[in-house]
Amino acid sequence: MRAPRRHLSVMSLLASMALLLSGCSVTTTPVSESTATAPGTAAKAPKGLEKFYTQNLEWNSCDGSLKCAELSVPMDYANPAGETLSLKLNKRPGSGTVQGSLLVNPGGPGASGLDLVRDSVPQMFGRSLQDGFDIVGFDPRGVASSSPVKCEDAAEQDAGRQVQFDTSTDAGLASMRASSADYAALCAERTGAALGFVDTVSAARDMDVMRAVLGDEKLNFLGFSYGTSLGAHYAEMFPKNVGRLVLDGALDPALSNEEITLGQAVGFENEIRAYLQDCLASGDCPFTGSLDDALTQLRALLDSVEANPMVASDGRSVPIIDFVNGFIIPLYDNASWPTLTQALSSVMDGDVDTIEYFADLSAGRTSEGTYSGNGAASFTAINCLDYPMNADVATMRADAATLTKAAPTIGKYLAFGAVGCQDWEFKATGKPGELTAKGAAPIVVIGTTGDPATPYAWSQSLAKSLDSGSLVTYQGHGHTAYGRSNGCVSDAVESYLLEGKVPTDGLTC
């Protein structure tokens, strides 16, 4: 999860260096096709939602061989006759015998499904999966190009990232709270009423509208990280409409925001230890001695940056939170560990540019100084609705002490997350709770044993709580498994999605 603005940004998204937050650019070409609803869909539409379930999608050519379309959904499902939101979709058409649509979501919340389909599917997804389905990406409500949450412009985001708060003092914490209140007011002013309806439950309901207008009787879905929350909530609400669902790198819906933050703090702490062990064994590590020695040196480095922020070659300061954001991005994929070693070696020599690059990647900042998508704003907006949070000072300080004890290297940078939602215009509508999806078709959950952002125990918990859950375990490091692990995982995912072969519960890859 992401802590508040100008605090640590631990994004639970698909960590792919090619997955940048940029919207789908639709070219102005004639309409090439339309999608009508499946036979009988209107009769199955929830009462009052018929016009949404029976709308036609007009697909335009975009981004080469892709197609893009726009979908209308109610802003408030309790008032379907009221205002509407516009959601953007794209698809990579299958070839040969196409089984229907496969919706995909890369996580976040705040990551763009359009970007996943445009940039990463050819490298991540098996050829048979690309041929067998129309692979459909979407930006959930409030995200990127879908009625986006609007907060700061690029200059304001740049300025905000230069600010550092000393939350160890009451005065520093008060300044942070005042800044967060200003940010909340800005988001409310620039976004309007839609800010109160970007919650995960509403986004999952949107997926059923997508299923219907795409012409599918059942929903086939592949969700990564936060995308597993969308998928699990969908299955809970529409169990009879579940086709083949794969949830990779699961969030545990029964956990509170505080429990999620603690789990991630421990997850990243463990991954830091694994990285340092690998670094020390490489013979090209900026740290020396034993693992404990290396941890001490790393913590000293972070303390030094906190006391005296480094300045990159472009003149921008890299305060500790931006520094840590840049540091953790390569921890999402162990294939990037050598790059992290190079970045830290450069830091030791006084060069922070690579760390700044990763921090910019985390924030969605382009080399031109613009920000693609709206990851920070939508992340905050969705989480503030999904999770009740306690911003009482004494409670937050106690939580901070717990985080620091459990994760001595990284924990303190995840503290005080509740501040970001304290003055949010709309109060939380979600609450933690176990999801069972009783009556749903088999749902495959994939967990990675060394996943820092969505710890393995969360996938175990979700698979166990789902009545039809089947757990696949990838023994390895990094965030999520499909598309970055091994053939065992790929075979399990693709055999299920394409042929309906449910992997044995407990399969280990």
Automatic annotation (TrEMBL):
Extent of the signal sequence: 1-27
Keywords (A to Z) from UniProt: Hydrolase, Signal
InterPro entries from the UniProt entry: AB_hydrolase_fold (IPR029058), Pept_S33_TAP-like_C (IPR013595), Serine_prot/Carboxylest_S33 (IPR051601)
GO molecular function: hydrolase activity
Pfam families (UniProt xref): Abhydrolase_4 (PF08386)
Name assigned to this protein: Alpha/beta hydrolase
Family to which the UniProt record says this protein belongs: Belongs to the peptidase S33 family.
Signal among keywords: yes
Domain called Peptidase S33 tripeptidyl aminopeptidase-like C-terminal: residue spans: 408-509
